[in-house]
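TL;DR need structure tokens for one chain.
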Amino acid sequence: MFEQVRDIIATYKRIDPKSVTMDSALVKDLGLSSLDLVSLVSIFEDTFDFELDEEAIPKISKVADIVQLLEEALENN
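>> reply
TL;DR here they are.
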């Protein structure tokens, strides 16, 4: 799951996938804005065919948070 998330983020930001780690902070390390995060959530929802609870978005601060949310969402479907 991490590799897919990493590749989506790297493609979106046009950065080297090696610069994206589980511990990467989305804003501080990867330079994402809140709009970027909403756009990425939409991409993840389309890619993995699920809907993320909008209340979860403010809780996402690291790549690991995205991976965890995706894994939980996919387990529940």
